[in-house]
Amino acid sequence: MIDLLTMAVATADLPLGITEGGSWFLRNAWLIPLLPALSFVTILFFGKRMPRGGSELGIAVLGIAFILSILTAAAWVDHRDNYHGEEVHASVVAVDHGEAGDHAEAGHGGGHAEPSLAVVSTVTWFQTGGVEFSVGTLVDGPAVMMLLVVTLVSLLVHIYSTEYVHDDRRYTHYFAFLSLFSASMLMLVLSENTLQLLTSWELVGVCSFALIGHWWEEKPNSDAALKAFLTNRVGDMGLIVGVSILFFIVGSALPDRFGSFSIAETNALAAAGMLPHTALLVAACCLMAAVMSKSGQFFLHTWLPDAMAGPTPVSALIHAATMVVAGVFMIARLYGVFFSGLSIGGSSINLMAVVGGVTTLVGASLAFVQRDIKKVLAYSTISQLGYMVMALGVGAWTAAMFHLFTHAFFKACLFLGSGSAAHAVHSFDMKSDMGGLRKVMPHTYKTFVIGSIALAGLPPFAGFWSKDEILAGTGGWGLLGGTGGNGAYTLMLVMGMVTAAMTAAYMTRCVYLTFHGEYRGHGDPHESGPRIIVPLWILASLAMVAGLLNLPSGFQLAPESLQERFGHFVEPVAGYFPTITHATPSWSLAIVSTLVVLAGVAVAGRYYFGRVEAASAAAGQSLTELPDGITTRSALARRGHTLLSNKYYLDHLYTGIIAGGTKGPVAAAAYRVNQNVIDRTVDLAGETAVSAGRFVYDKIDQVVVDGIVNASGRVSSDTGEELRKIQSGRVQDYAAILFAAATVLAGILIVIV
C-alpha cells in the first residue's frame, strides 16, 4: 500500500487543514516570542543602567506579550468558527479514496466539515544539499492556549519576583533569563516544524540550567543545575533520533521530496496510515525518552525535585507553564505520530499510558515523606504530569490539554504560596520552621488552600473538571453506563483513582504542617507584600473558575453554549490531527472519584487534625507526627517509609552505581593511561633529551667545537711567538728587512712588466 501511495497511484488528495490566510494577529504571532527575546538582550546589556535593574522592562514586555496573546486568542475564536477562505496547503500527497474518505467522514480530527484551518507563516531558514528548511509559526487551538498560559504565568512571576529577589546579587541577570525562558517556551509552542521545535526545546533547557543554578556559589545549587541539564540531555538524544527518523520516513512517503520536518505533514501522513508502522513505533519510543526527561516521567524524574534549589518564582514558572509541560505539549503537537505509532486507539495498554500511570503513583507516594514544602509540590507536579501523559496515552487528548491548562494556575498558585510562606520564615522546612502560619498570613493561607483543593480535584474547582475528564477518557468505567473513549484502559483508571486519593491526602498533610498547629520556627513571620499577594489571588481565582471553560456535555446546570468550549476551540479539527473518539460524561464516575478524594482528605485529616493535634496538646508542644506511629510498630511500614525516604533508591542507582561504577573504572583506566602511556611518553622524551644533550656535550661540544677553538688558539699563539722574534728592537734589523722587501718587490715588477 505504501509503495502505491508514494508512486502517486491514487485519486484523491490528503488534506492538511492549514492556510496562510487569517487575521493579522494569527499571521504575525511570531511577534509574541520576539518581544521577550529582545527584552533578554536589552536587560542583559543595559539592565544595570535602568532604574529597577531591568525588571521594569521585563514586566512591560511580558504585559504587551500577554495582551497580544489575548488578541490572538480572540482572532482564533473568530477564525475557528467563521473562516471561509480558500485552503492554501490543500494536500501533501495523493492517497486512496477509501482511506482518505473514511478519515474525512469521521467528522473529527481528519475532515474539514468545520472551518478550522490552522494558520501557517513560514520563511526560508537555510538551504543545504538542495533541501530548503523553513522556520515559521503554526497557530491553532493548542498554540493559542499555550500562548495565554505562558504569558500570563510568566507575567505574574515577573511581578512576584520584584519583591522575592529584590536584594539579589544578580538581580539583572535573573530577569534577563526569565525573559529568555519565556521567549524559548513561546517559540516552542508556535514551532511550525520539528527542527524548530528541537531548537526551542534545547534553549528552554539552557535557560532552566541558568535559573536553577542562579545561586551557583552554593554547591547544592550548581549540582542541581548540572543534574537537570545532564538528565535532560539523556532524553534529548531520543528527541534528536526521533526527529531524524520522522524526517526520512516522511520523505519516503513524498515522491518529490527528500524529507520533511513539517509538523502538519508528518501528522497528516501518520494519521492517514501512509507511514510504516514500525518506523513510527521506533520514532514514538525515541520521542517518549525526551518526554520522560523533560516532563519528569518515571524513571528520569529525579532531576525535578532537586531543581527546587533555584528561586521559588523560577520553580513556579518551570512547573506551571514552561519546561516540564514542554514534553506534554510535544506529544500533543505530534499526536498523529504517537496515536498511530503506539496504536492508542482500540487498545487497553501502551507505553505512554503505562509511563504516565506509573509516574502518577511514584510522584504521589514520594510527596508523602518530604519535609521541604517545595519538594512536596515538585513531586506533586511529577504526579500531575503523569496524569497528563496517561491521558494522552489513552486517547483523551482534550482532557490532557485541559488538565495542563488548569494545572498551570493552581500549581503556580501553590508554588508562589510556598515561596510567600518561606519568605516569611526564611526556610522551606515544614516540620521544623513552619506551622500556625494561617494566623499571621491569612492571604497566603486562603490562596494555598484554594490551590490545594483544586489540585486534589474537588468540585467545583478547576482540577475536578479536568481530572474527571481524564478518568472518563480511560474508557474503563462500566458502572451505570460506559464512558466510551478510544479503548478500555481499566488499569489506567485504577491508577488515576488511587492517585486522586493520595493527592488529597498529601496536600492535607502539607496544609496542616505549614499553616496549622503552633509555629515551630524562629522570628516573627508576617504577611507578604502586595507584589506577592496580588499574583496569588489572581491565580487562586483562576484555579476556582478555569474548569468552567470545559463543562461536560449534557451538564444540566449550564447552557449548551457553555459546554465543552475549551475542546471546541483548542482541539484541532484538521488533517494533521488523528481521528479520536471522545468519552461521554459519567456522573457515577464523577461521584465515585469525588468520594475517593474525600476519603483521602478524611484519612489524612483524621491523622493530622485529630490524632496529631491531640498528641500535641497532651505533650504541650507542636508535633508533626505521632511518636508511636505505624512506622514504629510495623516492620513492613518502616521498610516502606525507608524506601520512600530514599526515593526508591533511584538517585543511589544513578549516582552511586551507574555514575560511581562508571567513574571508578574510567578513572582507573585514565590513571593507567596517564601513568603507562602519557607519563611514560613524557619520561622517555625527557630521557632521550638528556642522552642527546650528554652526547652533544661530550662529543660535539668538548671534542669538536672546543678542539677547533683550542687549536686555533694554539696556532695563533705559536704564530705570535715566531713573529715576536722578528721584533728585536734594533734599527739595523728593520732596515735590512725593508731593503729585502724592496728588492723582492722590484723583482716581481721586473718579471711582470
Kindly summarize this structure in a few lines:
The protein has 753 residues and is mainly α. The protein is built from 29 helices and four strands. Helix 6 packs antiparallel against helix 23 (530-545).
Describe the structure.
With 753 residues, this protein is mostly helical. Among the domains are: 266 residues, no CATH class; 92 residues. Helix content is 68%, strand content 5%. The protein is built from 29 helices and four strands. The chain has a four-stranded mixed sheet. Helix 8 runs antiparallel to helix 9 and helix 11 runs antiparallel to helix 14. It is elongated, with a radius of gyration of 38 Å. It starts with a helix and ends with a helix.
- Give the overall shape: elongated
DSSP helix fraction: 55-70%
* Approximate strand percentage: under 5%
What is the count of β-strands? 4
Largest sheet: 4 strands, mixed
How large, in whole angstroms, is the Cα Rg? 38 Å
Tally of alpha and pi helices = 29
The spatial strand order of the largest sheet comes to 2-1-3-4
Instruction: Catalogue the unreliable spans.
Output: 1-12, 93-114
- Report the average pLDDT across residues: 88
Distance between the termini: 116 Å
**What structural class results from the helix and strand content?**
mainly alpha
List the helices and strands and how they pair.
Layout: H1 2-6, E1 12-19, H2 24-27, H3 31-46, H4 55-82, E2 89-95, H5 97-105, E3 118-128, E4 131-139, H6 141-164, H7 171-190, H8 194-212, H9 219-253, H10 263-271, H11 277-294, H12 303-306, H13 312-320, H14 323-333, H15 335-341, H16 351-367, H17 373-393, H18 397-425, H19 430-433, H20 442-456, H21 462-473, H22 490-515, H23 530-545, H24 565-570, H25 587-619, H26 630-633, H27 635-645, H28 650-726, H29 731-752
Parallel strand pairs: 1-3
Antiparallel strand pairs: 1-2, 3-4
